[in-house]
Design brief:
The protein is mainly beta. It has one domain (28-173): Calycin beta-barrel core domain (Lipocalin, Beta Barrel). The protein contains 1 helix and 10 strands; from the N terminus they run H-E-E-E-E-E-E-E-E-E-E. A 10-stranded antiparallel beta barrel has the order 1-2-3-4-5-6-7-8-9-10.
Amino acid sequence: MIKTALLLACIFLLIAPARAQQSNELSWDPFRFLLGEWIGEGSGKPGEATGGFSFSFDLEKKILVRKNYANYPGTKDKPAYSHTDLMIVYQETASNVTRAIYFDNEGHVINYAVAFSNDNTRLVLTSEPSASAPRFRFTYYKPNDGRLTFEFEIAPPGKPDAFSKYVRGSAHRK
């Protein structure tokens, strides 16, 4: 009888933290419109490009991973080049705040705060303001005609809310 009670107590002690952890997990429901592979079209300051991106869950749905590529044709001023990047969306365990971290083949690393608009039609990723570095904002708009639209904006150092469009585009599912 004592052995059974001890065994049940041990099982309860193992299950209780797992249940508490589950209740604090990030709900991925608002992000589901992004899932899948996308073919993109866009324009902006770097020039016309072809490319695409994908969003998928990883680590047993603990993170959302975006992989992106863009190919820029050569011009009379510069040769053709490719841009690739990786972004991971995650929830900070201690604060339950949703964050993202971005890496690209040009050596950039950007930390983003992640938020949805009040009507859940826009996912907005915004970097921290800095007096000495640009601030970035990336917005995804939920598809309403089957096309996902997005915008990348940059604010100059010392003017954290003076965003201007750098790239605007749309994508359709592959």
